[in-house]
Each structure stands twice: as C-alpha cells, then as structure tokens.
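Case study B.
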Amino acid sequence: MNRFAELLDRLTYEPRRNNKLRLITGYFREVSDPDRGYALAALTGALSFKHAKAGLIRDLIASRTDPVLFELSYDYVGDLSETVALMWPKAQDIVHNNPPPPTLTEVVTTLRTLGKAELPAQLTRWLDELDETGRWALLKLVTGAMRIGVSARLAKTAAAALGDKDPHDVELIWPGLASPYGELFAWLEGRAEKPVNRDPAPFRPVMLAHAIEDSDFANLDASDFVAEWKWDGIRIQAISGKGDDDRIVTRLYSRTGEDITGSFPDLTPSLRLPGAIDGELLVLREGRVQSFNVLQQRLNRKSVTPKLMKEYPIHLRAYDLLSDGETDLRELPFEQRRTKLERFITELDDDRIDLSDQIPFATWDALTAARADPVSAGAGEDADAVEGVMLKRRDSAYLPGRPKGQWWKWKRDPHIIDAVLMYAQRGHGKRSSYYSDYTFGVWTAGESGDQLVPVGKAYFGFTDEELLQIDRFVRRNTTEKFGPVRHVTHEPDKGLVLEVAFEGLARSPRHKSGVAMRFPRISRLRWDKPPREADRLETLERMLKAETTIAPPEPATP
Amino acid sequence: MRPQNILIPVPAGLRCKPGGFHIDPVRPVERAVITHGHSDHARPGHGHVLATQETLDMMRLRYGDNFAGSTQAIAYGETVKLGDVTVSCHPAGHVLGSAQMAVTCKDICIVASGDYKDAHDPTCTPFEVVPCDVFITEATFGLPVFRHGNAADEVKKLLASVALFPERAHLVGAYSLGKAQRVIKLIREAGYDAPIYLHGAMEKITHYYQSRGIDLGELRPVKGVKKADLAGTITLAPPSATSDVWTRRFPDPVTAFASGWMRVRARARQRGVELPLVISDHADWDGLCATIGATGAGEIWVTHGQEDALVHWCQSKGLTARPLALVGYGDEEEEETLPPGESAEA
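Model:
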C-alpha cells in the first residue's frame, strides 16, 4: 500500500503526461503481481467498493481526536481525507508490536468482501498501520475520489510501455481482462502469449482526421471525397456483439476506448443488432440537435437519473460501420461501408439512431458555400450544432490513428474578440517560470464609467516567441501580486490587447460576466491596439443570443 | 513577582524590564538578546547584542561589520547577569548557533525558546530541554496535521527522483540559512557524493557552515555552468528563486521544496512544487507538545504561528496558556526574498 501511495503522491504533483507515464511504468516494473494489477485497476477506475462515505470518515476521526483541533485543522487543510490522514493519531497500544502495513492487494480483496458493519473497525486498523501518505491514499481509494489527473487511457499506455507495446493493443484486449491483470503483465513481460479478447463487443482503435489548411485544397480532387457535417457532440463507438449464451452484449466507448456504457442506459437498448457503429453522441430535443453545452449535462455522470434521461434525451448519429454482424468491414473502402451503414440503420429503425447526412457538392467552391451556410445546405434547424465539415476519401479504409490524406476536418471559423489582459498566472512544469495562464476581460458600463470584466482564461494558442513577449510584458507591468497570480496593468490607454478565438458561448452564473467561452485560445497579440478599443460585453451578449438559446442548468457537482 | 513583570510583549519585541533588554527585538533597541540568525529575529541597528558566536557571525555576514554598537558572545551552558536577572543560553536545535534564552529573576525562570526543533539535525547542536516555570514556545506548525516524519526519508525521495529523471535538473528550494545546509548534509549522509550546486545567494552562509567544521562535500556555484551539464544534478536555491526566470538556465527542472509546509498538498501545489520534501527546522505538533510537557512549565506563552490550537491543547492538559501577541516574526521561508538583481544573476 505504501508503494502505491507513494505513486499516487508523486502523480498528484506531476503536471506532465510523459513524466506521469514514466512514474506509472516505473511502478509496474518495480512492483510484483498482484499488487500492480490492483494499482492498474485503481488507476483505470475498474475498482468500485461500496464506498465509505465522508460521514463515516468524520466519525472515525471524531472518536480519536479533540473536536476543536480537528475543526482548526480541517479549516486549514481544506480536504477531509487529507486532514484525517495527516492528523490521525496512532493507537498507543500498537506501538510495541507494529504489524506491517497492509498491501494494496489486502486492502482491495478485504474491501470486496467486507460487510458494512465491519468497515469502521477495519479502516481504523489500517489507518493505524499506515503512514500519512498511506492513509491519504487509502481514504482516496475507499471513498472513490482519486482525482489525481490520470485517465484510464494514460494508465493503460503506461502498462503498454512496460513491454514496448502499442497502447492500442492493450486497449483491444482490455475488455476481456479483469483485475489483477496477471495475464496482461505476463504478456507485457514476454512470459506469455497475448491474451485473447473474448469480449463480444470490443473497442476498435479509432481513425482520426487531419485539420485541413487552405493550401491543401490545391492538391485534392473534390471528386475523390464525400463530405458530412461535423457535429459538435462527442465521438463514440457503439458496439453490439453476441455473447457465449447468444445474448446481445452492448458497449459504448469514448474515442480513447474508455467504456462509458454505464452513463447511457437510455441508448443501449436501441443497439439491438450485432455491429460496430462509429458516430456522434448528441442530445436531441423534438428532433433538433442541442448545443454541446446541453450535451455536457450528460457527460461524466456517476449516476444517471430518470429525470436526467428525460430532460437530456440521448441520440446517436452514425457515420461509419466497422463491423456488420460478425464481419469486419474496416478493410473496405469508405463508400462501401457507407452503403452497408445505410442498410444497417434502416434495419435498426430506431428513433434514437440516425444517419449523418452527406453534403452534396461537386467543387470545393460549392463545399465552401455549404460550410458557410449550413442552414440552406441541408443542416436546416440543426445548423447551430454544426462545427464544420468532414471530408472522407471515397476509397479510405478504416485505419487506426491519423493516417495521412484520408480524412480531413474543416472547422467553421472560430469566433474572435479582442480582450484585455487582466491577470497572469505562472504555468506548471516546463512553464513554471513563465506567466502563461491569462485572464482577459472586455469592457462594460460600471458605476464609475467603463470597466473591464473578466470573461475567460486561456493558456495556449501563442507561439513560444509570443510567450516570451507576454511574460516580459507581465513582469514589467505588474501592479499587484497574489501568490502565483499577477495583476497586470489594464487601463484604457495602457495594457495588452489579446485577440481571443473561441468555439462557442454559454450563459454561466458562475462567471461575473455571466458568459463562459468554450475552448478559448490566444490567436494574436494586438500590440497595436489600445485597450480602450477592445470589445465590449454587449458584443458577447449579442453572440450569445445568436447561438442556441437554451440555457443549460449548471451541474450540481462539476 | 509575576512572570509578566519579568518579560512583557511591547511593539519592539519581548521586553525584560528588570534586565534592561529585549529578546529578538524587531526595532532598534539599546540592548538586545538574540536567539538565532534568521532575519526576523536578528535585525541590525541595536546598541548592544548578546548572542552566540555563530549568531553574531551570521549577523556580521548579512549586515556588515557595523551591525551593532557592541557585541558579547555567550556559549551554550553559560550564564550572564543583566541588571536584576540572569540569562543562560541553551541549544535550540533550530539552526547553527540557535539558542534558547532562560531568564531567571528571583525564583522564577522563563525560557524564551525562539524557534526550535527536537529532530535530528547534523548541522547544529541538538535541542536541550530546560526546566522552567514559564515556557515561551513558537507555534509555526501548531496544528496536529503537521507531523514532519524522518527527514532522511524525504531526501531518499529526492535521490530517487534524480535517478528516475537523469536528464533533468533538480532544483531544491530551501531557506538559505540552516535549511539548505541541513539538506546538503542529509544528501551526503544518504550516500550521494557528486558535486552539489548552489545559487549565488547561498554561497556565503554555506561557506560559513563549512568554516565551522561541517563537512558538506564538494559544492559548486551554479553560475556559469552550461545548461546541458546541469542534467542529473542537484542545485540548492532560495525558495523564491525556484519559480523565477533564473530557473531557465536548467534543463527541464524538477522543482522541489524543503519545508514543513509541504505536508499540506494545497500549499505545495499553490507554489507549483513538483517534489515536496517535508523537512522542517521547526518542531512539529508532536515535538511542540512533547517539549511543553518536558519543561515542566505550568504556564505556556505561545507566539508566532497557529497559536489557537496550541493554546487550546495546553489548556486541555490543565496548563495555563495564552497567545503572546508579538508582531514581526514570520515563517522565514515565506519571507525570503532576494536582493534586487541577484535573482537574475546568481
């Protein structure tokens, strides 16, 4: 447990992906089975216990410590698990006969079988046996709130690196594996054959598109391509297969292969026919596609209530078919797969699943016109949810990764505003000496004339050279410092104007300005522009009105 | 006589009226008794200073030869008479030369402990319990969440990281008086014998430690070393430098910080620390409680830090306790700023 705790501890402080990978791979190399397998399960979210609630943890600490000291400590630390881990006083009577701290395997296997009534006493024993970091990790594990910035995909990639394997290969066999993953590690260490995925509904590595540049069109022949709308939802694979007992097994995967089936119980019954659909997950209300902001209410939910399913009806818009029954279609040209997809969707005949329409065009000019005006080019009332167009070579096989020249994405032009830099914060890792996170604002009428109100934060979009320039500007124009944050001069005639590009806007009661931007980034530095000429909040409010006007409620737990 | 008649907090610091002096005064006074060399306790401009030889030397290094009108050195175990009181000096285990000052007047003994720790530190004389009637304790880490553990284990963490990331430089933020030398010594004790690099602001005080017979192995100034040559090395720097433009001379640095504050994640994250090392020169909660008990004092005065919790604890143990409203002392790590220009050049 202590070695696992040490890993979690390092991971929480490590901002960079590659270093996280090395830490995890290093752990897998050092630690033997089955501990490392349970660690992999914990990191991929494959472990779930009848979670100990915060109330139980509070009761435990109350039985051991002075309530005043606990409150003062909790107030200072701010996190319950951490406060308890740090201030837990070891029982006096075990000092002379210290039992060894539990292994991760012991913790996981014990928790799996333990009754609710026995949990407090067992947790108390472990808390006595572990050190601060061990207790913290234990409490994170049992309460199910890891939040250490590691995705399941990252953990699997780290496992793959142990045997120099392609993470896709791990992803492919993953659904057939179970913790503590002895078979997997045996294969990764070259001690056994690759485990066979017996899962009837396995994930397929996803084919991705390149962003197209204006200059690319000169070398592309319009007749080689078909076009579809690029929908502003999330890409998923919806897979049904026949299990051993001939029953249909259905799974939904994110584009990185994470199993998200549990979040969409309202979609799975619609996938009655064996096959693998590649498509976009959307929310449809009365047949109309809702904005991404609306869809977001359905994402990353632990529990899916009937109310949520009713208010945010989920929908699958299909654009590719990777297998039809038992037949793998991925080698076929796209056009042939499309024909099979059309037949498949017709046969399914389900309201929750439809085809992504193709956009008729003969020349690039015609497609340019369609992209500029999706309403009249076929997207109709759903045009607001169109993010751009997708171009797919008629003869493209379905290849994993981002093969050159096969699929292109051509996004709509982003929204652009000029905003004023207000605050700057130091970045992390490589950027820890640079002010690289920027809060920017626009003008609005205040009590004493115009004032700037913050409308967003951006930390990318600029070049390395521009980062140096902004960093220099921030250091020379700081008016106040609050910890890692600098307050930067922002007056009508003095300050830095940033051209900010973003994909969409939503109302947000959490922001002072009342609006939240989607995917904001710095597109240009406007050294030439005095701050007084930056945009006004009214401009954003007009854009907001022009967007889909259904305001999503804020999620209860973000 | 009541203890308050012997020592009383005033704006200049802790005043001893019958002895005619102040302890660790924050403003210039005629006679000062100084517990240790950290700049919030040892300030320049007093008429006369009584302190250990090491503390006097450190003040001279920092403020120049004219840091005080006159000075008098006192050794551990030595007693001097000042006015109507006697002052004796005892090791505080905080940094080199740090002392507790025991002030006795008639039959009452008050110990002003300054900053102290009861943990292992190979760079200074170990803390000594001084039985007394009134014990004045600091409370920098006066919450039960602060338990510092074994500093040697934290150094192992650092060395494991150096082994894991041999192409990166490791930058350890550590207060330049005391903490830095202790960390270097602990690194040596852990068996690391490659050269250790120093930020310019640390050189003077570190060389002073070496001149007092503390073996710190081979130390090199980091200034002028090529970026590529710093891969796989360890550099000690003042905490504020580790997030400064100064760090751009290092290849992909791992930022470590040696401090008792690193026990709390939010504190470490806020500073952008990637490798927190829980190494403190102050007593942790258990150390504070154990020391208070060991002195046998019936009355406890609590200064700088988390006074509330420690006063509450003392009272729950039946001791008379009160917070001592002294201003001007802080956590030296939070305070340490570099002289202008030094950060970019050193």
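Confidence is low (pLDDT under 50) at residues 548-558 of chain A. The remaining cases will be described in the next quarterly update.
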